[in-house]
Design brief:
Blueprint lengths: L1 H11 L6 E5 L5 E4 L6 E6 L2 H9 L1 H10 L3 E5 L2 H9 L10 H16 L4 H12 L3 H5 L20 H16 L6 E5 L5 H8 L5 E6 L2 H13 L6 E5 L9 E7 L10 H11 E14 L8 H6 L9 H11 L2 E8 L2 H15 L1 H7 L2 H20 L2 E9 L10 H27 L1
Parallel strand pairs: 1-3, 5-6, 5-8, 6-7, 8-9
Antiparallel strand pairs: 1-2, 3-4, 9-11, 10-11
Helix pairs in contact: 1-2, 2-3, 3-16, 4-16, 8-17, 11-13, 14-16
């Protein structure tokens, strides 16, 4: 069949690694790849899916897998993604990708605007899913962002604790300070900054009703409700001045059209001698539209910024870049651990939703890991100030602060161990 030959040529032109065997809906079989990587076999369930893939591989690969119309008969999903993108650092080189990529960039410039109402709707699409879902694969503190694998062989729990420690150290967090946590999630970092780092007050804001409700319950359970407050609030509506501002895993949802407003708001909220830490997924390559599958099914309105997109609005706001760290591969390791946990409890996820949802979530976690492992996705940590004399001259203070925070964590653990025994 003609569609079989076209599909074979498309895969042959893709510059694939490994050994990929493809069986079409008609039963025709062909091979592609350079033989140097994983061995994978896939089968298409219908010819309509094959045609859709040829027209828009960036979107359709994930859709076909989610719908069960692309079946992996040998190898794993990460193996397949390695075969497809490891060499090209992007999608397979099917000819329509570039033209559609341009169309998507134009569309995003014209209509993708994350104003307050749209931002709330976009957040609800992902973060207001059944709360039990996130308990299946996240660590016990519900850290839904890149962990920090500071040492080889760290567990997910240890790496997420190291992430909070690293961020608190860069914030120079401590007693007497007020903190604004933009996009505070389920409140784990806010509680850490108050309980471990000793900050006086932490004001966390989120647009997720589910996250806000659980975070508030946690503040009461830990006896920190007088110092930690979590509000259902857009960053544009926040008032007051704060000694420290932190934002972890939220900036990806802001959208380029609102970068000026975001950084201008942060400067207005930050005290003159304050410190801000922005932790965001980004790209080290040229600005580009985010995966259409991710923005349609997982993170509507999402965009991964490059430094060239962030720096002009930072400069225009009056904020100064005091330090920049690029976390490479840390998120790939985080997603690897999340995916392993999710697969271990896949039946529980299927009971919450269904098998199709599980395939969608598997594609999300595996394709995101592949993006960090093989493409240009990284995590940026930008330290921002209003003056250039606020942060110490060398980075030694980060290591020293992390050591103090670890001691405080250990002391808190001992207290929590002793109190139940005494009771």
């Amino acid at each position: 069949m003609l569609i079989d030959r076209i599909l074979e040529r498309a895969f042959a032109a893709g510059g694939l690694v490994g050994r990929l065997t493809v069986t079409t809906a008609s039963g025709y079989r062909f091979r592609a790849g350079d033989g140097s990587g994983p061995e994978v076999a896939i089968r298409f369930a219908d010819a309509a899916g094959e045609r859709a893939l040829l027209l828009d591989p960036e979107l359709r690969f994930g859709e076909l897998y989610t719908d069960g119309r692309l079946v992996i008969e040998r190898g794993s999903l990460p193996d397949l993604l390695t075969v497809l993108i490891a060499r090209n650092h992007g999608s397979p080189a099917f000819w329509p990708v570039r033209s559609r990529g341009l169309a998507r960039r134009l569309r995003r410039r014209l209509i993708d605007r994350n104003g307050p109402e749209r931002a709330r709707h976009n957040v609800a699409r992902h973060y207001d899913l059944d709360d039990r879902l996130y308990g299946l694969f996240l660590d016990s503190d519900r850290q839904y962002s890149c962990a920090y694998y500071a040492e080889p062989g760290m567990s997910l729990e240890a790496a997420q604790a190291a992430k909070k420690r690293h961020i608190a150290a860069k914030l120079l967090a401590g007693p007497g300070l007020s903190v604004l946590d933009i996009g505070c999630g389920w409140g784990g970092l806010a509680l850490y900054l108050a309980e471990v780092a000793g900050c006086d007050t932490v004001h966390g804001i989120t647009l997720s009703c589910e996250q806000q409700a659980l975070a508030e319950r946690r503040t009461h359970a830990q006896g920190l409700f007088r110092r930690v407050h979590v509000a259902l609030e857009d960053y544009r509506a926040t008032t007051g001045t704060f000694d420290r501002i932190v934002s972890v895993g939220m900036f990806e949802h802001v959208g380029p059209a609102h970068y000026d407003a975001f950084f201008r708001t942060c400067r207005e909220r930050l005290a003159e001698d304050g410190v801000m830490l922005l932790h965001t997924i980004g790209r080290t390559g040229m600005p580009a539209a985010t995966s259409p599958w991710i923005t349609r099914y997982i993170f509507p309105g999402g965009h991964l910024p490059t430094l060239s997109e962030m720096m002009p609005p930072i400069e225009a706001s009056g904020l100064m870049l005091a330090d920049l760290e690029v976390l490479r591969l840390h998120y790939a390791e985080t997603l690897r651990d999340w995916r392993a946990r999710f697969l271990a409890r896949r039946e529980d996820a299927a009971r919450l939703y269904d098998a199709r949802f599980c395939r969608m979530w598997e594609w999300y976690l595996a394709s995101a890991e592949a993006a960090f492992r093989h493409e240009d996705a990284v995590v940026f940590q930008l330290q921002l100030t209003r003056r250039n004399d606020v942060v110490p001259l060398t980075r030694d203070y980060v290591v020293q602060a992390e050591a103090r925070l670890r001691q405080a964590e250990d002391a808190l653990t001992r207290i929590r161990t002793v109190l139940p025994a005494q009771a």
